[in-house]
Amino acid sequence: MKAVDVSGISQWAEPIPVAGRTPFITSVVRQGQTVLPVFDLAASLRLTVQGSSPLCLRVKHSLGEMAMCIDEEIPVLHTLDPAMLQTYHGKDLPADGSYTNGLDEIPILSVSQLGSTE
Amino acid sequence: MTRISSPAAPSRFLIVLLGARYLALDAESIQGVLTLEEVGSPDDPTIHGLVYRAINLADRLRILDNQGSAHSRIVLLSERGVQGSIRVTTVQGWLELHPSQVLPLSPQFCGPERRWYRGMILFEKSIALVLNTSWVLDEQVASVEDSGGQGGIPRLVAAPKMSVKNSQVC
Question: What was the pLDDT predicted at A115?
Answer without folding.
Answer: 67
